[in-house]
Amino acid sequence: MANVETQDQPPAGRIVLTYEDYCALPDDGRRYEIIEGELAVTPSPRRAHQRFSGNLFAILHAHVREHDLGEVYVAPFDVILENTSIVVPDLLFVSRDRLGIVSERGVEGAPDLIVEALSSGTARRDRVEKAQLYARHGVPHYWLADPDGRAIETFELTEGRYHRTGGLAGETNFTPSLFPGLTIPLRSLWE
């Protein structure tokens, strides 16, 4: 008997998810992302994660608005890098010159900055898979924050790869090159 596929059987091979599939996902409190056609699901962030994201957003938003530098968004806000890669970073910044990539759907292209707050469930994905994805799509600045360890690592894209430009922890001040004139007491991000 010949091997005949019926409509009741899944298609053979890898299923590649798209933006349309992403839009059909349930609104159930989980964070869904599609990374190169594959679904990634994480639970809602923990308290330290939320505190960090909120504090950084408040500081950057005030500075960016005061100096008319662009726009800052906090999750959930979609970044559509391509039809098969839709991510929801914890925080992102789009410079004034590039605001054309911001639509009602989200950011359609590479923001100037993406910030991810690490957790035990997302650390590997943020450090490896997402870093490679962001580099390939040309996100110039990438920050990784460890709310539990109270530390931030900064990376800049050079020749298609991220290079670590800073590692901060403790009571130091953070003066990000992307935001001239801004000094962030690191302690203010965790409290």
Number of β-strand runs:
12
- What fraction of residues sit in β-strands? 25-35%
Give the spatial strand order of the biggest sheet. Answer: 3-6-7-8-9-10
Largest sheet: 6 strands, mixed
Mean pLDDT: 91
Secondary-structure-based class equals alpha+beta
Shape: globular
Descriptive account of the structure:
By secondary structure, the protein is of the alpha+beta class. It has helices at 19-23, 47-66, 123-136, 187-190, and strands at residues 31-35, 38-42, 70-74, 79-82, 85-87, 91-95, 113-117, 141-146, 151-158, 161-169, 173-174, 184-185. The strands form four sheets. The protein has a six-stranded mixed beta sheet with strand order 3-6-7-8-9-10, sandwiched between helices. The longest helix has 20 residues, at 47-66.
Brief description of this entry?
This protein has 4 helices and 12 strands. It is of the alpha+beta class and 191 residues long.
Give a quick set of tags describing it:
12 strands, globular, disordered N terminus, 4 helices, two-stranded antiparallel sheet, alpha+beta, six-stranded mixed beta sheet, 191 residues, single chain, 23% helix
Give the arrangement of secondary structure elements.
Layout: H1 19-23, E1 31-35, E2 38-42, H2 47-66, E3 70-74, E4 79-82, E5 85-87, E6 91-95, E7 113-117, H3 123-136, E8 141-146, E9 151-158, E10 161-169, E11 173-174, E12 184-185, H4 187-190
Parallel strand pairs: 7-8
Antiparallel strand pairs: 1-2, 3-6, 4-5, 6-7, 8-9, 9-10, 11-12
